[in-house]
Structures are given as structure tokens and as C-alpha cells.
């Protein structure tokens, strides 16, 4: 039984071995076949890729070859063009060299001809000289001596005539020199003046403020007019109140007071009186500062403090529309400049010039002319008699006792009479100067122009490419005629046209 079982077990092992071997061999054969197929496919793909790469490499090589050939062809063409240009330039240079050689040859021939003619001319001149000596009976040296003697006599005669002319001219130069000193002083002392009126305008934020300024039954406006001494005009003028009064200091106080009240918003009699007091203190400080600034500008020191305050009051005083403080400063500068030119005392002239209208600071409060009031003020504050004399004589009320006093009167007249100082506004004055320059600039051939000497002269720069020297007098005449026909002006205007030479005409 055991034997049977053993035989059966052995038979089972043998059968299993045989079956397993058969199955393994089949599996191995199948795997080898698949591996062989994969290798074959890989070789085919590798061959295909190799061929594609080879083709692409050939195409890239062909494209690079084409690019290189095209670049070589372009460079060859550029070299050909450059070569042609060089050949052309060489031919041009050769032609120029030939022309130069021909010109040099022509110049050489001309030099030879000129040398021959010069030798011929020298011989001819020598013959003519001998002939002149034979005809005149004088040698060249004798003739030269006679000519020099005659020339010396003519020169002596001309010199004597010139000396007489110089003597006559020197007599006329004194008057001319005085005019030049005055003109130079005027030009060096340039001050602006504007006309002032007897009214001031205060702007309001709205028309409702007018009712608040008037107050109940007019008590506020009466309080302002009583405290300041200035009339308030409240009419239909939108958002504005007009202050009217001949005393500019009071008008300034009223203006400052009203502006403060408008900003504060509390308008009633008690507040008005308080604000007026503050405005008066502010104006007094402004007057003091204006007087100190005037003395500083002129360079006058050691002036009595009360005189400084009186000078400051002139800031709010006008005469024929001219600010008296600015006028006084200008007179001081003019007198000082003219005194320096004439070798006089410039400090004395400046001091008297600055104080010459000091009487106008209180002429509304004191009886008498401003000259007499000024004399009393200067004596009161211990000014020297020389300063008082210079101030007193500036209107001819008193005879001048010094040359400085004469200069004060001249400077006062110059400051008051110059264009732009009185009886016309600064705007009108500037418009006239602008119109004068406009007339010149609109004339053909004019490059630019300048109105100088307060409009008494216009200096014109002509375009040299458009106008010749012969055209300059005609241009000056043309512009002067235009000024005569288009402008209204006192006196005369000097038209000064400048190119390489200058031509001057006058519009009368």
C-alpha cells in the first residue's frame, strides 16, 4: 500500500515536472519572440530617426550655404560699388590736379607779364620824372621841399581856424554841460509816480454787508463818519463802499477801520470807536516807517524824530496827482547828484531836497504857505540855516543864498515836470511809450526799438541785411513822420536809428 502510494506520488511529481517544463518552454519562447520584435521595431525607428536627422542636417547645411553665398554676393557687390566710387574720385582728383596745374601755369605766365609791365612802367615813370624836372626847372628834392612848405602854411591856417572854432565851441559847452549834468541826474534817478484820487474803494463780501454798515436808523455809518471824518458813500455799486475825503490820512484810517469791521463782523458804535483807534495806531506806525525808509533811501541821518514822522505823513499827501513823499525823495536824489557833479556839498543838497516840502505835511492844520510852514518847522527842530535856505528858496519866495539852494529849485522843477510825474496816470504814460515802440517796430527794416529818456527819444536798431547805410536817414525820416501823424505829445521826440552808422531826425 505504501509502495502504491509512493509510486503514485512519484508519478505525480513526474507528471507535474513534465507539465511545468512544457509550460515554461512555451512562455520563454513567446518572450524571446516578443523581445526580438521589440528590438526589430527599435532598430527600424532608429533608422527612420537617423534618416530624418540626416535629411534635416543636409537641409540646414544647404540653407547655411545659401546664406553664406548670399552674404558673399552682397559683399562682392558692395566692394564693386566702393571700387567704382574710388575710381570716380581718383578721376575727379586727377582732373582737379590738371586744372590746378593749368592755373599754376597761367599764374606763372601772368606773373612774368606783370613783372615785364612793372619794369616797363618803372622806366616810363623815370622818363616822366626827368621830363618833369626839365620842364619845371626843379629837381625832385626841390619840388618836395616846396610842396612841404606850402602844406605847412595850409596846416597852420587850418590850425588857427580850428583854434577859433574850439574857443567858440568851449563857450557853448558850458550851457551844454549844465544840460548834460541835469539830464544825467534825471536818468540816474528814476522814480515811478502814479496819480491818486480823493476816494478809496472798500470791497464787500456781499451786498448784505451794506445794511450792516449803515446800521439801525443809520447809527453805524454816522459813528464811522464822526470817528474818521470821512464820508461813506453807499450806492448801487455792487459789493463796494466808497470813502470820500480830501485828507488822505483820515481816508486811510477809515479804510483800514472798515476792512477790520467787515472781517470781524461785529459792527456797532462801541466796536467802531475801538477799531478806529487801532487803525489810527496802525497808520501812525506806517507813517513812521515810511519816514524812516525815506531817510534811509536818501542816506540822511540824525534827523529829528518828529521830522521823520512829518516826512512819513507825506506818503498820504499828493500834489497834482504826484505823491509828495516820493517827490521829495526824488528831489533829494537829483539835487545830490547834481551837487556831486558840480563839486558842491551833496549831503546838504540831499537834506534840503528831502525836507523842501515838509510844510505840506500839516498845511491842512496850520495857516500859511507850505514854504513858511516848513521854515517854522525846520527852525523848531534845529535844522541848519543852509538847509532852511535851500528849502525856502525852492519856489522863489526867498532869494537863494547858496548854489545848493539853486539846485533844490532845479531838482524840484525837474521832478514835477518830467513825463509821468503829474497830471497823467502811470498807465497812460506806459501806453504812450508802448505806442511809440509799436510804431517803430511795425516799420519794415526795424529789428527792435527802445523808448528812453521818458519817451523823449526812441532808439531804433535797423536790420543790416534789409537796410543799407544810405537807407538809414530815410528810415529815420519815415518813422518821425509816422510819430507825428499817430501820436499826441508835448515837445519833440528824438528818432535815433542805428546800423553801422547812425542817422538822427526829430519829430516836431
Can you walk me through this structure?
With 508 residues, the chain is of the alpha+beta class. 69% of the residues lie in helices and 8% in strands. The chain contains 14 helices and nine strands. The strands form three sheets. Strands 6-7-8-9 form a four-stranded mixed beta sheet, with helices on one face. A hairpin with a 6-residue loop joins strand 2 and strand 3. Helix 11 packs across helix 12. It is flat and about 180 Å long. The N and C termini lie far apart (172 Å).
Give a quick precis of the structure.
The protein has 508 residues and is of the alpha+beta class.
Task: Name the descriptors.
508 residues, alpha+beta, 4-stranded mixed β-sheet, 14 helices
Task: List strands and helices in order, with pairings.
Blueprint: H1 2-136, H2 140-188, E1 199-203, H3 208-214, H4 219-228, E2 231-233, E3 240-244, H5 248-264, H6 269-298, H7 305-313, E4 318-319, E5 322-323, H8 324-342, H9 346-354, H10 370-380, H11 385-392, H12 403-417, H13 426-441, E6 446-452, E7 457-462, H14 472-486, E8 493-498, E9 502-507
Parallel strand pairs: 7-8
Antiparallel strand pairs: 1-3, 2-3, 4-5, 6-7, 8-9
Amino acid at each position: 500500500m505504501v509502495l502504491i502510494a509512493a509510486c503514485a506520488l512519484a508519478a505525480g511529481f513526474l507528471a507535474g515536472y513534465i507539465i511545468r517544463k512544457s509550460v515554461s518552454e512555451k512562455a520563454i519562447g513567446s518572450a524571446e519572440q516578443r523581445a526580438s520584435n521589440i528590438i526589430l521595431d527599435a532598430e527600424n525607428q532608429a533608422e527612420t530617426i537617423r534618416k530624418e536627422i540626416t535629411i534635416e542636417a543636409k537641409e540646414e547645411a544647404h540653407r547655411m550655404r545659401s546664406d553664406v553665398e548670399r552674404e558673399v554676393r552682397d559683399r562682392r557687390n558692395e566692394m564693386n560699388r566702393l571700387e567704382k566710387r574710388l575710381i570716380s574720385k581718383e578721376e575727379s582728383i586727377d582732373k582737379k590736379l590738371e586744372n590746378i596745374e593749368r592755373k599754376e601755369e597761367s599764374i606763372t605766365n601772368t606773373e612774368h607779364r606783370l613783372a615785364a609791365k612793372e619794369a616797363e612802367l618803372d622806366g616810363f615813370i623815370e622818363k616822366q620824372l626827368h621830363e618833369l624836372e626839365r620842364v619845371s626847372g626843379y629837381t625832385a628834392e626841390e619840388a618836395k621841399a616846396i610842396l612841404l612848405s606850402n602844406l605847412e602854411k595850409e596846416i597852420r591856417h587850418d590850425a588857427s581856424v580850428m583854434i577859433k572854432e574850439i574857443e567858440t565851441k568851449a563857450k557853448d559847452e558850458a550851457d551844454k554841460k549844465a544840460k548834460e549834468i541835469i539830464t544825467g541826474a534825471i536818468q540816474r534817478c528814476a522814480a515811478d509816480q502814479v496819480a491818486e484820487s480823493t476816494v478809496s474803494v472798500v470791497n464787500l463780501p456781499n451786498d448784505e454787508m451794506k445794511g450792516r454798515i449803515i446800521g439801525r436808523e443809520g447809527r453805524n455809518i454816522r459813528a464811522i463818519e464822526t470817528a474818521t471824518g470821512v464820508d461813506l458813500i453807499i450806492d448801487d455799486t455792487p459789493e463796494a463802499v466808497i470813502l470820500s475825503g480830501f485828507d488822505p490820512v483820515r481816508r486811510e484810517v477809515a479804510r483800514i477801520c472798515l476792512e477790520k469791521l467787515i472781517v470781524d463782523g461785529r459792527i456797532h458804535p462801541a466796536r467802531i470807536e475801538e477799531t478806529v483807534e487801532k487803525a489810527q495806531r496802525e497808520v501812525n506806525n506806517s507813517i513812521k516807517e515810511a519816514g524812516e525808509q525815506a531817510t534811509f533811501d536818501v542816506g540822511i541821518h540824525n534827523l529829528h524824530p518828529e521830522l521823520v514822522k512829518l516826512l512819513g505823513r507825506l506818503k498820504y499827501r499828493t500834489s497834482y496827482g504826484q505823491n509828495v513823499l516820493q517827490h521829495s525823495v526824488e528831489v533829494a536824489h537829483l539835487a545830490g547828484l547834481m551837487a556831486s557833479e558840480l563839486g558842491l556839498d551833496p549831503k546838504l543838497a540831499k537834506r534840503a531836497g528831502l525836507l523842501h516840502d515838509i510844510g505840506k505835511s500839516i498845511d491842512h492844520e496850520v495857516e500859511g504857505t507850505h514854504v513858511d510852514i516848513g521854515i517854522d518847522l525846520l527852525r523848531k527842530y534845529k535844522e541848519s540855516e543852509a538847509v532852511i535856505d535851500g528849502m525856502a528858496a525852492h519856489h522863489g519866495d526867498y532869494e537863494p543864498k547858496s548854489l545848493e539852494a539853486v539846485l533844490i529849485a532845479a531838482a524840484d522843477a525837474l521832478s514835477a515836470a518830467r513825463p509821468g510825474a503829474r497830471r497823467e496816470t502811470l498807465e497812460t504814460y506806459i501806453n504812450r511809450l508802448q505806442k511809440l515802440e509799436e510804431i517803430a517796430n511795425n516799420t519794415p527794416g526795424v529789428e527792435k526799438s527802445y523808448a528812453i529818456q521818458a519817451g523823449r527819444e526812441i532808439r531804433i536798431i535797423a536790420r543790416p541785411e534789409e537796410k543799407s547805410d544810405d537807407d538809414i536817414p530815410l528810415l529815420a525820416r519815415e518813422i518821425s513822420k509816422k510819430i507825428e501823424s499817430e501820436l499826441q505829445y508835448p515837445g519833440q521826440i528824438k528818432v535815433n536809428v542805428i546800423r553801422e552808422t547812425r542817422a538822427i531826425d526829430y519829430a516836431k
